[in-house]
Every structure is written in C-alpha cells, then in structure tokens.
Amino acid sequence: MFPYCKYPENEIHSYLQTVTQEMVLRSLDNLEPKFSDFLNYISPAAENVMEEMREHAAVVRKMYFGNTVRLYGPLYISNICINDCAYCGFRTSYHEHKRRRLSFDEIMVEAKIIKGYGMDSLLLVSGEDPVGVPVDFLVKVVKELKKMFSYISIEIYPMDRDNYRKLFEAGVHGLTIYQETYDQELYKKLHRRGPKTDYQNRLDAMAAGGEVGFYNLGMGALLGLNPDWRLEAVSVAAHGLWTRKHFWRSKIQFSFPRITQVEGGFQVPAPVSELNLEQMMLAFRLFFHEADLFISTRESRDFRTRIVKTCASHISAGSQVAPGGYEEYERLKDKRDLGQFTITDPSSVAQAAADMKAHGLEPVFKDWDATFGA
Ligand code: SF4
What single DSSP character describes residue 303? Predict the structure, then answer.
C-alpha cells in the first residue's frame, strides 16, 4: 500500500467488500467525490453498474477535455539496464535480448520519423543506463529535440533534484515514474538487483520532480503484478492525492499499463481483465476530474477507441518500443513488437487519428506552447 495512505490496507480491503450497488450509484451523483466515493467506484459491486459508470465518466470527460484526444509518441533511447525487474525484457539477467543504446545522431533519426508522423509530443524512454545515458547527454539531446517538438516528457531512471533541474531547464516538462507495485513485499521480490531495489528512492524521485516544478507528474502501477488490482488502484489514487496536495502547481497524470508478453517468458501472476481495467480507468476519471489519463498501444484498437470516449485523454500511436525501432520499421516495414512490451494496437498515427475522428473526437497533436518553456 502507498506508505502515506492514512487508511490501513486491511480496512480498505474490508470496506470494499461492504460496498453495495446503491452506494456506487449514490457516489456517481456526487459532484465533488471524496476518497470514499473512489473506493465505491473501484469496488466489486461497481462491476454491476458499469454502464452507469460509463455514462457519468463520459460527462466528466467532456466537461474537462471536450472532444479532444492528445497524441504522443515514445522514443526509446536505450534498452541497456542495470536493474533486474522480473517482468521486463530489458532486465540485466536476460541475455537473449539484443541490446542497443542510440547515439545522438540515431536519436535524431528516430525523432524525425516520429515528427514525420505528425507527432508534436515526445516521450523519451530509457532503461536505467546512467553511464551510457548520462544527464549531460540527455540535456544535449533535449535541447536539440526542442527545436522539433513542443512538448517533451521523460520516463527514465530516477534522479535527484539537481539533475531533474538540468533537464527541466533544457526543456523537459513532464516526468513519469511508475512505482510498478505499491506493495513493498512484492516490490522486493520483483526487483532483485540494482538501484531499483530501493522502493523509497523511487517514491522520492517523483517528489524531487515535483519540487523542481515539472508541469506534469505521471504515475501508475504495472497491472498484473499485484494479486489484488483494487488495492493497487487505491494506492495509485492515494499517491495521486498526495502528489497533488504537495505539488499543486503540477498536473497529475495516470497511466494504466497491463503487462503484455515480454521476452524471457515471465508469467503474469495476476492478469487484469479488460473489464477490470476499464472499471479502474472509469474510477479515476470519476474521481480525478482534471487529471490526464493515458492509454498506450499495449491495449487493442477497439478498447482504446472505446476508452477515449469515457476516460482517457492521451493516447500513444504508431509506437515502436525498442531503440531504433522506427528507423528499422521504416526500412524493413516489419513491425518489431517485442521491445519492452508487446504492442497490441499496431495502428499507424494516421489510422489512430482517423479512428478518433470517426467517433466524433478531435485528435490534438500540439497542446503546448514554447511561450511557457523554462
Ligand atoms: S522495468 Fe525499467 S528498470 Fe526494470 S529492467 Fe525494465 S527497463 Fe530496467
């Protein structure tokens, strides 16, 4: 459980079992929902009123985001990693994986391809590779990429305040760090070697990013690790509340990655169904009205098209999830989908945008202006 949550895990677990359909329906009518309403949305009883949840969430989404859906593209810099996360194909103990770290020029090649798809928001991703991808290199990369993209965010290894400040000043405006699981015992079992064994350090890094003033702070858990996805969802929400309270100038963002097939044969301990994923996302939209909710290409085209109408505000598209993946795809026209995770929706950016338009939504590539830069 998120360590600063004021309710103990067993109390939350017991409460969730007592929630009734009537309680969920009453919570749906609450215009300013409290944490107890969030628990009602996430409860087993809410599974029976999903249609009502969808209707209410769609209204909230429309109030805060209109018909817009924002698109972003991930760019993988390195799949070299000093950590040994049991569930990840980039883990240090897995030797079959082709390792690659992009040079400055190779990163620019990837970036130009992504830009050519029409993307204007870029997410830089890397394994924990602080020697090969040091902060000063990232600063140089970001300064160059800022000439091409309006918005840059990072999903890389945790850093201290000074290094985050360097990146912020270079033009990074969003920080995402997944805690993966908030269950400390489970965390210990899954993170066997490397700096990521330090649970608290990961939490503190998000706070350091908040202190530096990143405009967007993204968080989430890797769904399928914790046998009780509801408790994991409660922890993510509690982390969101804590972050919003302490770093109220930043916008909070949530992602909902479900584990998909990875190289190395990791068996997902507790698969989360699509319906449960949808319930979780509805609960977050109903409780965190203004927060950005992300859905990646891990999920199917059909699911993504449905979920943007009720919950999600941001989607990735046309993604390649390995370093050099875009260049290789353009050269060979061969989708390499076993990178950090398996891509379930291989739609191109143009296809994803067309899907949004066909459902009355407006794909937005640029929602960030350099005027607000550091
Ligand atoms: S999840 Fe991240 S930190 Fe863990 S092995 Fe994969 S790339 Fe490295």
Answer: H
Burial class of residue 331 in the structure, from the number of CB atoms within 10 Å of its CB (0-12 exposed, 13-18 middle, 19+ buried): exposed
How many whole angstroms separate alpha carbon 346 and alpha carbon 348? 6
Contact 191, 182 (CB under 8 A): no
Cα gap 63→341, rounded to integer Å:
33
Domains of the chain in sequence order: 50-372 (3.20.20.70)
Residue of 98 and 286 predicted with greater confidence = 286
Angle at which helix 35-42 crosses helix 229-246, to 10 degrees, equals 150
What CA–CA distance (Å, rounded) separates 280 from 297? 18
Both tokens assigned to 145: 């990429």
User: What is the reported pTM?
Assistant: 0.95
Q: Which helix (H) or strand (E) holds 368?
A: none
pLDDT band at 60 (very low <50, low <70, confident <90, very high): very high
- Give the sign of the dihedral formed by CA 112, CA 142, CA 252, CA 342: positive
pLDDT tens, position by position, 168-219: 999 999 999 999 999 999 999 999 999 999 999 999 999 999 999 999 999 9
Average pLDDT over residues 345-364: 92
CA of 91 to the centre of ligand 1 (A): 6
Pocket of ligand 1 (CB under 6 A): 81, 83, 85, 88, 90-91, 127-128, 196
User: Which residue's alpha carbon is at the smallest distance from atom 4 of ligand 1?
Assistant: 85
> Of all helices (H) and strands (E), which one includes residue 281?
helix 274-287
Q: Which tops the pLDDT comparison, 335 or 220?
A: 220
- Position 273 scores a pLDDT of 95
| Residue to substitute in 80, 82, 90, 321 for testing ligand 1 pocket (most ligand atoms within 8 angstroms of CB) | 90
- Residue 81's SS3 state is coil
> CA of 94: how far to CAs of 84, 97, 131, 183, in Å?
8, 7, 19, 24
